[in-house]
UniProtKB/TrEMBL annotation:
This is Flavin reductase family protein. Keywords: Flavoprotein. InterPro entries: Flavin_Rdtase-like_dom, Flavoredoxin, Split_barrel_FMN-bd. SUPFAM superfamilies: FMN-binding split barrel (SSF50475). The keyword Flavoprotein applies.
Amino acid sequence: MEHVTIAPSILYVGTPVALLATENPDGSANLAPMSSAWALGQVVVLGLGAEGQTAANLAERPDLTINFPGPDHWPAVERLAPLTGRDPVPASKPRFQYEPEKFAAAGLTPAPAELVGSPVVAECPLQLEATAAAVRRDAGEEFVIVEARVLRVHADPDVVVPGTQHVDPTRWSPLIYNFRHYFGLGEELGHSFRSETPRVWRSAPSKGL
Ligand SMILES: Cc1cc2nc3c(=O)[nH]c(=O)nc-3n(C[C@H](O)[C@H](O)[C@H](O)COP(=O)(O)O)c2cc1C
């Protein structure tokens, strides 16, 4: 395989979209789409622009919810895309507009969480309640890195293997942000040796038979 050297302006190689609900100074909820998130055990590490309202909220008030929309929710996510909860809009966000009512602007529904003050997004099949255990600047001072400790997980029963604690990967499908384009997942290709929900008849590697 021959490769060319390129200088892409973004490196979003395809990660799930999450909607972060955080608490504004006046107690109202902010809601922001993001995709720079990954899980380490029960901690989700979040990468946030330092000038956004979400980063400002988490530096002062640790309660948050991390909500995972499915592929059908991409228009609601994109309605949030040009909005910020920061007033005035920072100079670094020239194409953004201030919006204090993000849930209404997106057409999404806030519902009370059980352990934290920030609401969950009712339409999202997976909702994590969490607390920001650490909030720090990145080495370049441009971003904020948040370690969000997950306190409780809520799942639509349709994506849970009945009678277990497992999410069924054949029923749950995240919304993927792939170089600023939205995708769902394709068919299952296989599973990790550590999977607790294997579908051996579908995903065993082919032996060429
Ligand atoms: C699909 C999608 C993914 C995004 N991923 C991130 C991200 O990982 N980190 C981030 O800081 N901003 C990300 N953004 C941009 C934020 O949503 C944007 O900066 C927004 O203004 C933040 O809102 P806030 O200022 O109210 O916090 C993403 C936007 C979209 C639409």
